[in-house]
Amino acid sequence: MADGPAGGSTRGPTPEQRDQLSAVGAASGLGCSVVASLIVFIGGGVFLDRTLGTEPILILIGVALGLIAAGYQLYELAQIGRKDRAAPPLTRGLARVVGRRGSRSG
Prior knowledge:
The protein is an all-alpha fold. The chain is built from three helices and no strands.
């Protein structure tokens, strides 16, 4: 029985499927980093405001910085998989990591 559950070969995904899976992995990673950046910046603002007694100034600055960081990360997320332009910096870094992992023999 050389066929997989869907009747396909058990040799693994095609290069096109591998590219799609890579894009999904990068998108989910960037999605998590959007949430993490918001938590870090807003949480940092809350902590600093409570420590320094400057409420709500640093919370508002943290919200603004968190939204800027999240917006940039969403821009990068929208650029994943586009062939007509060069990848943004974070996406290029992810492509290098994925490329190194993909070059290993398994």
